[in-house]
TrEMBL record:
Keyword Flavoprotein attributed: yes
PROSITE patterns to which the protein is assigned, alphabetical: FAD_G3PDH_2
InterPro entries per record: DAO_C, DAO_C_sf, FAD-dep_OxRdtase, FAD/NAD-bd_sf, G3P_DH_FAD-dep
Alphabetic keyword roster: FAD, Flavoprotein, Glycerol metabolism, Oxidoreductase
Cofactor: FAD
EC number: 1.1.5.3
The keyword Repeat is assigned to this record: no
Source organism of the structure: Jeotgalicoccus aerolatus
Catalytic activity, as annotated: a quinone + sn-glycerol 3-phosphate = dihydroxyacetone phosphate + a quinol
A Pfam family matched in the record: DAO_C
Protein name in the entry: Aerobic glycerol-3-phosphate dehydrogenase
Pathway the protein takes part in: Polyol metabolism; glycerol degradation via glycerol kinase pathway; glycerone phosphate from sn-glycerol 3-phosphate (aerobic route): step 1/1
Length: 340
């Protein structure tokens, strides 16, 4: 069901990543003025247990055949490797890691780590994503396409930011806000200040910079036992939530044994509550896939605790059994995709 809500605004920012062309397609003016478009490429990562791929430090290396750069990174008892970079024209909302993507990465691993004898049966989980790149003429290889970002204006007030890299997100955010300020000044004589976010910590980032991070994590995790968590659990949470971690500890401290009702460990229960109250978690897949990444790195938590999490979300957010069933099927499909 589509619900249309009229919104009055002088400008609208379109930062919809791989979908920016679709959003521009809904704007008659932008459609007429469009010269540049996106081109999409797919990137796949694969995940191994540490015992199968014992790596202690992140490395990057080039593949034998096409010389592309590949990363192998240890994380929370796993090692993940990626990525591929191939043109993609299929369903953007559901890209999957196909056999040939996995074979490409396995070949690259065996080239760099010949004694590992990696094969697809060792892959524990995988995921695929879509890169929103700006089309340029003459790029035959996906990896040759520029990762630069650009801003496109439509006379309707739709301002699109496209392309770019994750590492440039703060710069891109500042760029687009400044652009909107200029637009409002020029067209509506509004006096809107430009922004400076360079010294603003992101949510959870108030940890004394990269220099202070390790100390911060060690100090704060000492508080965990007073909330009924172990030191190790406190450390694990502090690494993940940074300076937001005390809020998560507090939710662990006030469960009133509610976690037992849902047969969830206290730590997981606190993370779900935090997700609902601070990270817009509504569905089980919001939590397991997009917020915690457990689907990729802690698949056993998903399999062991999904029923409890589904019940907790349903009870708290009061949705009906049909919605619960639909969300459960969505999670089933996501679990299947990691095993393809
Ligand atoms: C496999 C892979 C590996 C990568 N590795 C790196 C890397 O190592 N370093 C790096 O810097 N970058 C990397 N990138 C690139 C990086 O992820 C992207 O450049 C970045 O995510 C783009 O950010 P964005 O906000 O423009 O788009 P997105 O992160 O895609 O966000 C767009 C959002 O808009 C939402 N949306 C879409 N349509 C609508 C609509 N109609 N209404 C409301 N919301 C909508 C989407 O749901 C999404 O949440 C990688 C990308 C992939 C796929």
């Amino acid at each position: 069901m589509i619900i249309r809500i009229p919104i009055k605004s002088k400008a609208v920012v379109n930062a919809s990543g791989p979908w920016v062309d679709e959003v521009r397609g809904n704007d008659v003016a932008a459609k007429q003025q469009t010269k540049k478009h996106l081109v999409h490429t797919k990137g796949v990562h694969i995940v191994f247990k540490q015992e199968d791929f014992p790596l202690t430090q992140a490395v990057y290396f080039d593949t034998k055949d096409d010389g592309r750069m590949i990363f192998a990174i240890p994380r929370a008892g796993k090692t993940y490797v990626g990525t591929t970079d191939t043109f993609y024209g299929e369903d953007k909302s559901n890209p999957t890691a196909e056999a040939e993507d996995k074979a490409y990465l396995i070949d690259a691993i065996n080239f760099m780590f010949p004694t590992l004898n990696a094969d697809v049966s060792m892959i524990e989980s995988s995921w695929a994503g879509i890169r929103p790149l700006i089309q340029s003429s003459g790029s035959k290889n996906a990896s040759d396409i520029s990762r630069k970002d650009e801003i496109w204006h439509s006379t309707s007030g739709l301002i699109t930011i496209a392309g770019g890299k994750l590492t440039g997100y703060r710069h891109m955010a500042e760029e687009i806000v400044d652009d909107v300020a200029d637009y409002l000044k020029k067209h509506f004589k509004m006096n809107v200040k430009k922004v400076s976010t360079i010294d603003e910590p992101v949510s959870g980032g108030d940890v004394g910079g990269s220099v202070g991070y390790q100390n911060y994590v060690e100090n704060i995790s000492r508080k965990a036992p007073s909330y009924g968590l172990t030191l190790e659990e406190g450390f694990h949470l502090a690494m993940k939530y940074g300076s937001n971690v005390e809020t998560v500890y507090q939710y662990a401290g006030i469960t009133n044994d509610n976690h037992e009702k849902y047969e969830l460990p206290k730590l997981l229960y606190a993370e779900v509550i935090y997700g609902m109250l601070h990270e817009m978690v509504i569905k089980p897949s919001d939590f397991f896939v997009r917020r915690s990444g457990k689907l990729y790195f802690e698949i056993n938590d998903v399999l062991n605790y999904r029923k409890g999490v589904e019940q907790l979300l349903q009870d708290t957010l009061s949705y009906d059994d049909n919605a619960r069933q639909q969300y459960a099927e969505e999670l089933d499909a996501a679990i299947q995709d990691t095993k393809r």
